[in-house]
What we know:
The chain is an alpha/beta fold. The chain has one domain. The chain contains eight helices and seven strands. The protein has helices spanning 11-31, 81-85, 98-110, 130-133, 149-155, 157-167, 174-180, 190-194, and strands at residues 38-41, 52-55, 60-67, 117-124, 136-138, 145-147, 181-184. A five-stranded mixed beta sheet has the order 1-2-3-4-7, with helices on both faces. A two-stranded antiparallel ribbon has the order 5-6. Strand 5 and strand 6 (145-147) form a beta hairpin. The longest helix has 21 residues, at 11-31. The protein is globular.
Amino acid sequence: MADPLTRTGSIREGFEYQDLYGVAVLIEWLEHPERYEWVAFEEDEFGFLDDVIRCTPDLKLTLSQVKHSGVPEASRLDVSLSELLDQPHGKKSSKNSLFQKWFKSWVGAIEQERFSDVRAELLTNRTVADGLLSFMKKDSNTGLLTLDANRLKSNAPSEWALLLEQAGEKASLVPNFLDKLIFRFDYLEIEVQKKPPCRCGQKRSE
């Protein structure tokens, strides 16, 4: 069964999944107000990375795209490198790949020159394919995954060349972008996120 990131199964579930992540970010902000200067949602100026936006007091920006698959877990396809680079055929020409959409959106934020740092983030309930995972590195402190430009150059030269081609005149920025593009796979399902937090250890007030 087809399960591309660009078609999220149930549109309603996709919006709900995005909203739940947004609520989680707002709760985090309420509990730790020093972490963010502002939080926004669906800001068109950030292109395809506009689902959830967070900015810290020192102007570090995180642009998140949230992708939900409504396909049952046993039938889902894993997220692969070829899927990220695939350019769907339109009526007149090929459309931009996911990589192109995210890269152009990130470059646009960089070129605003308003922020000290700009990170992009994909958050999804889908699992990463072994092939894609082999090109990734994990941050030893946070455990977050990013694509390793050196591994791609060495072990997937054709895909690396395609990355550069899709980046166009901004190709020199690709290594930096890959270092700033965070992948969060296997994120909590809707049912899990909607469960109320456990207060088992709290004493009842008299």
